[in-house]
């Protein structure tokens, strides 16, 4: 049973302490499939998901993510990579510099929401040396590391809902 999407959005938060139990493969597959169903410019789907469960590789990733321990502690880490060349073929420089990043961010958000809906804790990590991350996971040079997603079962106390700006502070209606 999964949560309602609005509950997932409201209740999701970054978890940095994980239990050691691995996510069952069917659950992990569903989470990755959600990422793969994200919208993308021209339906080009310029993303790749490198799933890392090997401790030595996770430790290397944590090191180049400025020693963020949740990267090595999470049972599963997904490195989301963009393929700028794929977007460039149809959309030129704007595709390579913007669309592929928007597309992979949408895939990342789908992964986070699917994880929340299935009871899996997550943390979106954006601070890392992208070239070193790509090298560590042995990605082809054309790919660009965009996000690291830590996945596992939370080993933290439940948190209160996150504070958000009021909609009136961030939305402008133009009639």
Proportion of β residues?
Answer: 15-25%
- Rg, alpha carbons: 17 Å
Q: Mind describing the biggest β-sheet? A: 4 strands, antiparallel
Q: What is the structural class?
A: alpha+beta
Number of DSSP helical runs: 7
Task: Tell me which CATH architecture applies here.
Answer: 3-Layer(aba) Sandwich
| Integer tally of domains | 1
List key phrases describing it.
single chain, 175 residues, alpha+beta, NADH Oxidase, 4-stranded antiparallel sheet, 7 helices, 4 strands, globular, Nitroreductase
SSE topology sketch:
Layout: H1 5-11, H2 25-36, E1 47-52, H3 55-64, H4 69-73, E2 76-82, H5 84-117, E3 121-125, H6 130-136, E4 144-152, H7 167-170
Antiparallel strand pairs: 1-2, 2-4, 3-4
Helix pairs in contact: 1-5, 2-5, 3-6
Summarize the structure.
The protein is an alpha+beta fold and 175 residues long.
Plain-language structure description:
With 175 residues, the chain is of the alpha+beta class. It has a single domain (5-155), classed as NADH Oxidase (3-Layer(aba) Sandwich). The protein has seven helices and four strands. Helix 1 (5-11) packs across helix 5, helix 2 packs across helix 5 and helix 3 (55-64) runs antiparallel to helix 6 (130-136). The longest helix has 34 residues, at 84-117.
